[in-house]
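Annex B. Sample input.
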Amino acid sequence: MSSPFSEDAKMKDLLGRVGDDLSQLRSDLSSFFSHTGRHTIPTSARDLRDSARERLSAGGDFAAN
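Annex B, continued. Sample output.
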């Protein structure tokens, strides 16, 4: 039994393009999460740590005065 869509060339082309887009999206998301986990989060954590150290040091200096 043949599907009414099996001979629709435009639909086949669009489905192929959607499949390609989804594949590229999957690849991009993988790269995004990999980069975020390796670079963005660690950098933000280091910045937060440095800021906390500076504020604690400034607070200690203020208390000593």
